[in-house]
Amino acid sequence: MFLLHGFAFVNTFAVSAVHHPVLQALIFFGILMFGSSILGIPFKYYRTFHIEERFGFNKTTSKTFVLDVLKGWFLSAVLGGGLLALVIWFFIWAGEYFWLYAWGAISLFTIVMALFYSNLIVPLFNKQTPLEEGELRSKVEAFSRETGFKLDNIYVINSSKRSTKSDAYFTGLGSRKRIVLYDTLINDLSDEEIVAILAHEVGHYKKKHSLIGIGLSVMQTGFMLFLLSLFIDSPLLSRALGISEPAFHIGLLVFVILYSPVSMLFGVIMNAARRKNEYQADEYAAVHYDRVHTCDALIRLYVNNLSNLTPHPLYVFFKYSHPTLLKRLEAIDTINY
Q1: Interatomic CA distance for residues 180 and 1, integer angstroms
Q2: How confident is the model at residue 2, as a pLDDT?
Q3: 274 near 281, Cβ under 8 Å?
Q4: Buried b (16+ CB within 10 A) or exposed e, 232-245
């Protein structure tokens, strides 16, 4: 009941402040997102400066913490607010077919982010520098030549400014592809283990996991927007929050709440697909580089990051995007060369 009154109050404020539906929606969701973020800050602070600190991971300063929050708000306002305004404008302009235009715009945004995320977003939070010349780069380049994988963009990110945890990731498409190594990874692992991790990331590219992931995300977005187009005009959505006057932003909020079970189902399916991708990338690293170094690198990562080695299978099924260490080692052990 308290939430219903809260939503009604925010909606009244947004409607009374402006009369344009786009601005009403931006004010409405802006207040909700800002309030949600404010409520979440104490939990984020506790997780960073107490839990992470307790286990020796935290390197974040109070200044970095505050700047991260402010930068997150800025990106949410610019990117999230911009997309929301565009979707509402499509609804006003195109009517029942707005979802097709919105789908196209969001799909284009997804592709642009896949191409330029590491160039546009990451520098707001971290520095990325090319992997310097030396023995490690020579080994990486040798592996690249052996596998016929053109890899010019290998970067090191200063993740140690926030945490001692280690990782690496692949980003970009085509000529924009880039492999990013955490500086903590370079400090914690041997050169051979680092090349094994890099081989794993190359495996993701060779198996086209990024393209498949983008495709699945685009299809899921299209399905959600299509369902939204079927219900957004229903006055029942606004009445569900005790608001008699139908409005796009109210209908969108109720739809998002009702869509949550479907979203959770898609999340389970996507996590299952990601776990399968991890097995395939592990296999690529083991076959095209070295089985022992791949296993050693995984063990070192899981141990250094204090990952749960024996989580409950149901929790893994619903929440994990990566298989457990034991499952990954067992899968590598069964590979036939």
Answers
A1: 47
A2: 47
A3: no
A4: beeeebbebbebee
Strands (E), the chain: 128-130, 154-157, 168-171, 178-182
Identified catalytic residue from 52, 282, 283, 290: 282
Looking at residue 15, its pLDDT comes to 52
State the pTM of this model: 0.85
- The catalytically annotated residue of 193, 201, 278, 283 is 201
Residues 6+ apart with CB under 8 A from 59: 160, 161, 162, 163, 164
SS3 percent helix, strand, coil of the chain, rounded to 5, is 75, 5, 20
- Kindly tell me if the per-residue pLDDT of 92 is higher than 80: yes
197-221 exposure pattern, b = at least 16 Cβ within 10 A, e = fewer: bbbbbbbbbbbebbeebbeebbebb
Average pLDDT value for residue range 169-187: 82
Say if residue 162 is exposed, middle or buried (CB neighbours under 10 Å; 0-12, 13-18, 19+): buried
Q: How much is the mean pLDDT over the chain?
A: 86
Is 282 labeled as catalytic in the residue annotation?
yes
Taking the C-alpha atoms of residue 95 and residue 51, their distance in angstroms, rounded to an integer, is: 49
List the structure tokens of 183: 């500086």
DSSP code of residue 95: G
Residue 295 confidence (pLDDT): 94
Q: Give the type of residue at 176.
A: R
Q: What is the mean pLDDT of residues 70-82?
A: 92
The first and second tokens of residue 201, run together, are: 């990331």
Contact 163, 58 (CB under 8 A): yes
Burial tier of 165 (Cβ tally within 10 Å: 0-12, 13-18, 19+): buried
Q: Distance (Å, rounded) from C-alpha 287 to C-alpha 28? A: 53
Give me the half-sphere count of Cα atoms (radius 13 Å) on the Cβ side of residue 235: 4
CB 14 within 8 A of CB 31: yes
- Maximum mean pLDDT: which of 111-115, 116-120, 192-196: 192-196
pLDDT exceeding 90 applies to what percent of the chain? 42
Query: Which residue is listed with tokens 């024996």?
Result: 310
Cα separation, 37 vs 34, in Å, equals 5
